[in-house]
Structures are given as C-alpha cells and as structure tokens.
C-alpha cells in the first residue's frame, strides 16, 4: 500500500462523523512504516533500533512529528510441518512475556500507545499501534499524547456517552474505507470494562482489535464416548473411545477461512452472560437445541491469551488481541449430530482423538481453538505430565494474566 495523506484522512473523518447513529445489534433473547497495512512491508527479522515507527505519515502534507519507536518483527504462523503443543501455544499467545524476553517485552510496550478514558487516567484499557493512534490526532472526543504514548477518550462520563463517542469515531473510520479490518463490520457490540469491573463503554466487534482491548468469547467442545471390543493385542473385553465433533470454517469467512474450529465458538456481546452466549451460538452454528445445551453443557473454566494478529486473521496485521474464552464441554449421545445452521460453518466431522492430534500437529486448527483443545486434553487426561515435555509451561500458558481490567 502506498503512503497516504494523513491530513486529508482526518478531514474526511470529521466529515463522516454521523449526527444520528443507527441502533447497533444487541441480543434479542433474554438477558464482547509507510504502509497502514504492515502486510505490505516485510520488516526486519528481529528488532531494528533507531528507525521511525510504522506511522502512515505523508511528510509532504503534514508537519506533525513521527515518534521514534522500535520496528517489530512481523508476526507469522509457525512453519508448516509437525507442530508441538508448545508451538501451538506460542503461535496464539505470542505477545512477549517480561519474564522470558525482557528486551522484546519492552520493545513492544514502548512501541504501542496505551488506551485510556478520562475518568480513569491510570488504567490502561488496551494497546494501539502507532499507525492506528495517529489517525485520531485532532479528532473530536480524543486526545493523543506522543510523549506519554497515550490515546485518551476525553468525552463522556457515563457508559452511554462514551459508547456514543466511540461509535461515532468507528463508524466514521468505516465510512472512509481506510482500515481493511472494518470491512468485516458485524453490528455487534463488545463490552470494555473498568478497574472495578464496571462497563465503561461498548465498541463495534470488528474495530476492537484496532484498540487492542480485551474481548470475551465462548468455546465448546462436543464429544461422544463409544465402546468397542478390544483387539487381540489389547486383550479381551471392551474399551471406551472418545470422539470430538470438529467443524470446518467456511471458505468465505473473513477470518481464518477453511480452518478447523471448536464445535461451537462465538463472541460475547454487551449484556450477554457467557452461558447464554453459548446457548445462542450452539443453535446458530450447530443446530443444537437450547434445552439440550442448557441441561448438559458444563462450564469448565476459561482460556486466556494475548495474540498479535497475523495475515490469517484478516485485515491489518500486528493488531493486538487479548482474549478470554469461557470454555464448555458437552457430551452428546451417538444419535445427536451437529449441523450447520448458518453460512459460517462448512460442515462437521466426528474425529477420533488421534485424528484431532494429527490435525493439531499439521496446523489445521484456528490458533485459539488449538488452545481450547489443549485445555480439553489436559482436563480429560489425554495430555499428561508423564508423556508431554514442557507440560507445566503448557498448562500455565493456557491461563494468561492480563494487565488490563477484566471481569
């Protein structure tokens, strides 16, 4: 992508600021370089000090300074071939840890702009790429501070007021067509929480990664248990086998098209409870009856990770995505078959544990779905300390602590 005129973009944004906002979708049933797209820039293989940040500045049309930062390596999927379970975790939970790579951790921290709201000036809500933050310069409702590397929402003292200001900005950004990620606009609101778990504002789902805020979802693994006669080598009697229902994402999806997924997965919208979201997604994605899911699905914890998006996620790369997935298990009778009920799933297949493990090794699963499956394997004794090298790190990394407020 060629450089662009930043001043013209901001003028267009002001023009696009809507006066009357359409009502955004909430659940209806009872009460989450020179190029703007770093994909166009190969970037260095590691850190390159002394360079300008990847700000989309056109020096011929603006005199605003470009803050100096480190140029960070492009996030890329781990190379094809057999992947270890730790490889799968590193691919999804790929924001550096202070304890293991202090230099890289601070290179990231010192590159991004921290997101704040004016009523909580000490509470970071997310991390934003410089190339995204600079677009807010001079816009209504926002204040950017290059010295402190911060972007603050200065409008609104209530959730409704803040949400309206954010909606006006994101809809204006969408109207300009500037960010590729906003082509996946969903008309769904995700909640952003404050230091005491209070709802600060809601944000359009497709724009959440631009702001680097914590988002919430629900993932469920549906499985069956069948008995078969033991082989001669296994010595008489019966053995119980577990099989998992695995869907393949539609080839037309904007994010991770054609990859394997968890049985049911989806985002949690503002106002939704995690289990209600799971019930809704089960009907929408797998045609599983509400009564069946409410009666038999079991809440089994959460999986958390801090992901830096690569090209498979769709839209701009290097955007930050800290996420919490509420995890559920559902044992199904052999005669219950999940079926697609929307255009997001191409189909379901009942796979043995060995088939699932092979697909994981081959990198066929969406990265966060691989994390959920590893959590399933740990809880069901499929993955054990005796057999798995790096077992403690794997279990620990499935439950990352965020520095941002959560609920």
Automatic annotation (TrEMBL):
PROSITE patterns: NUDIX (PS51462). Residues 27-62 are annotated as: Disordered. Gene3D superfamilies: Nucleoside Triphosphate Pyrophosphohydrolase. Residues 226-373 form the Nudix hydrolase domain. GO terms for molecular function: 8-oxo-dGDP phosphatase activity. It holds the Pfam family NUDIX. This is Nudix hydrolase domain-containing protein.
